[in-house]
Amino acid sequence: MRRARHARWAACAVAGALAAGACGGGVSGAGGAGVLTSSWADPQNPLEPSNTNEVQGGKVLDMIFRGLKRYNPRTAEAENMLAESIVTSDSRNFTVTVKDGWKFSNGEPVTARSFVDAWNYGAGLRNNQKNAYFFGYIEGYDKVHPDSGPQTADTLSGLKVTGPRTFTVRLGQTFSSFPDTLGYNAFAPLPRAFFTDHAAWLSRPVGNGPYLIDSYTKGSAMALRKWDAYPGPDPARNVGVTLLVYTDNNTAYTDVLAGNLDLVDDVPAAQLKNVRTDLDGRYINTPAGILQTLAFPYYDPEWNTSGARKVRTGLSMAINRKQITRTIFRGTRTPATDWTSPVLGVDGGFQAGLCGHACEYDPVQAKKLIEEGGGIPGGGLKITYNADMGSHKQWVDAVCNSVNNALGNDRACVGNPVGTYADFRNQISRHRMSGPFRAGWQMDYPLIQNFLQPLYYTGASSNDGQWSDRRFDRLVDQANAETDTARAIALFQRAEGVVRDNMAAIPLWYQNGSAGYSARLSHVALNPFSVPVYNEIKVG
C-alpha cells in the first residue's frame, strides 16, 4: 500500500494543549487523561477512503472506518466485520448482505447503498481517486473509468442494490479472492453526508469506526477521540489518540524517552543499538508485510532500454544487503530475495531465493553488467528519498557507498533528499523522477496479488515508475481468473518471474514493524501491516 495525504481541516481543538514547536519538536501535555500521543506524518490528500493509498492516511482510516471485512490484527486473515455474508457460486457473481445495526457517527445507518455509492464514487474518472484501480474488477469499470476519453457512465453496471442490506457484485471476470480484498480501506462505506455536503465532510470526515476526528492542523497534529456509541465488536480501550506530526523520527524517539510522546511506530535506525535498554523492554520488533525496493522512472527513455535492464541488475548486485541490514538496521530488516514478503508463507506464494544471484553482493559482476548495459543513465546515480523520516539517509548513503565501491568511483552514486514525505510523493505522482527512488510497499491485504498487480501491472494505481510488460499483465489476468487458489498462486509466481527477469524494481529488504512506547501505555501491538492497533492500547 501506499502514500501520504493531507487536508486543510478546521482549527485544531487541541491547539491550546500543543507546544509552540509542535511540528517535529515534541509536544508536552497533548495526551491528557486516557489519551495517547503517537508520531505521524501529514497525509498527501484529503482522507477519502478511495483516495488514500499510503501508510499515514491509512492509519487514520483504520481508526475511523470499518468495512465488510477486517484483517485480523494478529494473523491478517480477512474476517467478516460489516459483512453478514458474501456468497458466490462461480467466483464472479457475489451477493453481499450487510449486518443490521451499524451506524455512522453522525447517526446515519450503514446500508447496502452506503457501499455501492462509495464504490461508484471511488471508481469514477471524474473524481480522480488514487484507488480507483481497485474497482477495476467490477463490471462496467471501463465505462466509468476509461483508459482514454471521457467517463460515459456514472455507476458501475456490476453493482446493484437489491435491498436495504443487500447488494450484488458482478465482476468482469472470475476472481476467487475478491472477498478477501474487501478489508482494504478503498472499499469502506460512506454516509450520504459525504455526497450532500462534500466540502463539510472533507473538513471533518465522518466514518463508522471506533474513533471520531476532532480536529487536524496540518504540520502539527490530528486529534481523534473514542466514539462511545460505536456498535462494533472492537471498541477503543482508550479515550483518544493524538497524532503528532514529526519531520524526524529521531526527535520522536527522544520525545518518548523524555515523556513528551507515548508511541513512536518506526524506531529510527540510529536508535536501534540501545532501544531495548533505553525503553526498558517497551519495544516491539515483529515481522510485517513490508518490502523496501528501489523503483525506476520508466517514463524516462534512458531507463527503459534493454541495456538499462542490465544496469539495474548490476546495481542490484552492487548492493551489500547483508552488511547494510546488519550494521544499520540491527535485526529489523532482512535481505530481500523476492518481490513479496515472508509473511505470506510458502502456501501464500512467497518464494525465498527467487531473485537468485542478482540479489547477492558481487561487485565484480555488478561493474561488468553496468558497463555492458552502457553505464548509468545520465552518468551518475541519484537515489531520491524523503528526508523527514530519519532512517532513510543512513541506508541510502550506505547503498551509495556500496555502489561506489563496486564501481571504483566515489561519485557514481549520491542521495537526493526531498524535504517531506508529502513533497516526495507529489514529485513521484507527477513523474518527476530522473533516477531510482525509494519505494516501500506495505501490503493492503495478505495476497501475493497485492505485491504484484498494484505495483507492476500496466496503468496500476501504484505503478509509480510506469513499468509495463504484456506477458506480466497476461499472467496476472490469468491468475485473477483462476478459481483454484493454488493454481492462481502459481500463475502469480510466474508473473513475479517476469518482474525478476526485467529487474523491474530492485528488492532491498523485508521490513519488520518496530515501535517504542512510554510507561503510560500497555497492550501495545503492531498488526501485520506494521500499524499500531490503536483501539487496543490502554493508557495509565
Structure commentary:
There is one protein chain. This protein is of the alpha+beta class and 540 residues long. The protein contains 16 helices and 19 strands. Strands 11, 12, 13, 16 and 17 form a five-stranded antiparallel β-sheet that branches. The protein has a four-stranded mixed β-sheet with strand order 1-10-9-8. It has a four-stranded antiparallel β-sheet with strand order 4-5-7-6, with helices on one face. Helix 9 (306-317) packs antiparallel against helix 11 (363-372), helix 11 (363-372) packs across helix 12 and helix 14 (448-456) packs across helix 16 (485-502). It starts with 21 loop residues before the first helix and ends with a strand.
Topology:
Layout: H1 22-25, E1 35-40, H2 55-64, E2 69-71, E3 78-80, E4 83-88, E5 93-98, H3 112-123, H4 141-144, E6 159-163, E7 166-170, H5 192-196, H6 198-203, E8 211-217, E9 221-226, E10 240-245, H7 249-258, E11 263-264, H8 275-278, E12 283-295, H9 306-317, H10 321-329, E13 333-335, H11 363-372, E14 381-386, H12 391-407, E15 413-418, H13 421-429, E16 437-442, H14 448-456, H15 470-481, H16 485-502, E17 506-517, E18 521-522, E19 538-539
Helix pairs in contact: 9-11, 11-12, 14-15, 14-16, 15-16
Biggest sheet layout: 5 strands, antiparallel
The radius of gyration over CA amounts to: 23 Å
Helical/strand content category: alpha+beta
Average pLDDT over all residues: 92
- Number of separate helices: 16
The total count of strands amounts to 19
What is the overall shape? globular
